[in-house]
Amino acid sequence: MLTILGRTNSSNVQKVLWCVDEIGVPFEREDVGGAFGRNRDPDYLALNPNGLIPTVLDGGRALWESNTILRYLAASYDTGGLWEPDPGRRADGEKWMDWQLTVLSPGAMRPLFKQYVRTPPGQRDPALIGQSLEKATGAFRLLDEALSRTPWLGGERFTVADIPCGVLAYRWMNLPIERPDLQALAAWYARLAGRPAFRRHVMIGLS
């Protein structure tokens, strides 16, 4: 049985929980990180030297880096479902997984989320919010353009490629910010919101 180490309000842990729920793989989960600590303990660092969450244990294998975990789970347990077996079609979707890590998260959604959710109103940085909102808006415009051509980021069906951006789209849609009218993005988000696993693990509030 898989063991997932990480707290449920982490976006990176939510990716993994959503994925295993879609596939139907049995798992156990332990609270690690944030208020729960443990992620700097020697035994945890022996599994994940970065000391971040999540870490997934599958037999004798310890896995870390959330998008790598998604690829592993889909390829190991759901080929033809979440895992696209054709390398070209798979790359069409997986580029958005890497884009989430390099563009959508670091300079756009992460600081925006931290300012609105983790920072008291009187301590927020308006300049940082403005910069992050501009970057996030531009990023979601790119996503909207891609989704105007195909219903899912990997093409004609839902795959593991939709999960990383989908987790951040929930935050984008629920932060108290002004958002442009991006119809393809909104339609994709509505399709995600119709998936029970997304509702169970991602639509749990912002914290």
Walkthrough of the structure:
This protein has 207 residues and is α+β, with helices and mostly antiparallel strands. Helices cover 56% and strands 8% of the residues. The protein folds into 2 domains: 2-77, 3-Layer(aba) Sandwich (Glutaredoxin), CATH 3.40.30; 87-201, Glutathione S-transferase Yfyf (Class Pi), Chain A, domain 2 (Up-down Bundle). Helix 4 (87-118) runs antiparallel to helix 5, helix 4 runs parallel beside helix 6 (162-174) and helix 5 (126-147) crosses helix 7.
What key phrases describe this protein's structure?
Glutathione S-transferase Yfyf (Class Pi), Chain A, domain 2; 8 helices; single chain; globular; 4-stranded mixed beta sheet; Glutaredoxin; 207 residues; alpha+beta
Question: What's the gist of this structure?
Answer:
This protein is of the alpha+beta class and 207 residues long. Helix content is 56%, strand content 8%.
